[in-house]
Amino acid sequence: MAFPKTRMRRLRASAGLRGLVRETHLQPGHLVLPMFVAETVAGSEPIATMPGVDRLSIAAAVEQAHEAAALGLGALMLFGVPAEKDEQGSGAWEEDGVVQAATRAIKLAEPELLVITDVCLCEYTDHGHCGVLGDDGTVDNDATLELLARTAVSHARAGADLIAPSDMMDGRVGTIREELDGEGFAATPILAYSAKFASAFYGPFRDAAGSSPAFGDRRGYQMDPANGREAVREALLDVEEGADMVMVKPALAYGDVIGAVKQATGLPVAAYNVSGEYAMVKAAAAAGYLDEPAAVLEILTSLRRAGADTIVSYHAKDAARWLAEQT
Ligand code: PBG
What we know:
CATH superfamily: Aldolase class I
Strand content: 15-25%
Bound molecules: ligand PBG
Number of domains: 1
CATH class: Alpha Beta
Helix content: 40-55%
Largest sheet: 10 strands, mixed
CATH topology: TIM Barrel
Number of helices: 12
CATH architecture: Alpha-Beta Barrel
Shape: globular
């Protein structure tokens, strides 16, 4: 008599059989490559805590765009590192700001490659918070909304294909939607960072963007990692406000949230495999503790299995190469 275990084994006996019954697929087109475009960098400048990732000049970003397109990646995601920061974060919405200029240059060089722009003030404020501060020294949610909407419109004007607000202010998706519609960008979709947790895994990113809060932390607006149901509520509110896609971030320890958000919203879900998750694999691989290609492809495939349609990953280019070698 055949036990169930034995029947399963028969389908694992060869690469052909395993391929025939594989439930989850990972392709370069599922991956989004984040890039840091810095106003003051000539060429590229390494980021100490993210080996293999650089801060890029606009020309270097265009080079990366060519590479990304050749590898068949789904999209780029742009973050700006401005020369000057101020209290309001005004560099975020300048028509010729670093993200706007990089978007124009990339869309000119690689018109088919999708460009997603991150909408947040933390890279542009001198205090490093994601919004403007009120009289009490905490982030003023409502005063921030207008500035985020202005930023989003400036990105759309520069040619961004998808607008991704990562600030976690209440009401920002609706405000941005209204402003985009009013300015003639009704066709530009919004990818909302709906479930963004106050995470220790953003450390290297803040290093890269110089965006660590000068005081306090982000727990007033980012979510408690202990809360899964709240993540679903956040996502549903963003859907109501007009989000076209939703994001869960970080990714590795949040597979349950990715699945739950996907189930509840029915929308395409992106997972952000963040800087600390990248750095962790890099460090272990450098020490000889892990086989980097195998670990990365396992992580990315598992995020797809959890429910991510799209994955933002600093490993995107490497993963595309490793996938090509496998086949
Ligand atoms: C900005 C933003 C952050 C990340 C993406 N957008 C950092 C933060 O909230 O401090 C982190 C991405 C990463 O760690 O790779 N709000």
